[in-house]
Design brief:
single chain; 117 residues; mainly beta; four-stranded antiparallel sheet; 11 strands; 54% strand; globular
Length: 117
């Protein structure tokens, strides 16, 4: 049974930082790309960042380039998202995802990130 459990969300002031983590189980973690998506109220879910199975290939949304770093630890079956200089528009539910194939994903339950003063 595939499980993706996110943690690390919360309330942060503009300009602050958060580190999201995702613990994966139920599949061979090192074989698959992983990613973080987010969904704000009234908006579609969008990619934040993704990372290849070995960690060498990363992709970032234009809105997050220079402000976040995705990383993975294949020994611990975890993927993390370090976000810096957060803005109110970054407020959303953030989801960890495993990429089985193009347009084929499984999702975690999400973790709320709220950026507000």
């Amino acid at each position: 049974q595939v499980q993706l459990v996110e943690s690390g969300g919360g309330l942060v002031q503009p300009g602050g930082s958060l580190r999201l983590s995702c613990a994966a189980s139920g599949f061979t973690f090192s074989r698959y790309a992983m990613g973080w998506y987010r969904q704000a109220p009234g908006k579609e879910r969008e990619l934040v960042a993704s990372i290849g199975s070995l960690g060498a290939d990363t992709l970032y949304a234009d809105s997050m380039k220079g402000r976040c770093t995705i990383s993975r630890d294949n020994a611990k079956n975890t993927v993390s998202l370090q976000m810096n200089n957060l803005k109110p528009e970054d407020t959303a539910v953030y989801y960890c995802t495993v990429v089985w194939a193009p347009k084929s994903y499984s999702w975690g339950q999400g973790t709320q990130v709220t950026v507000s003063s």
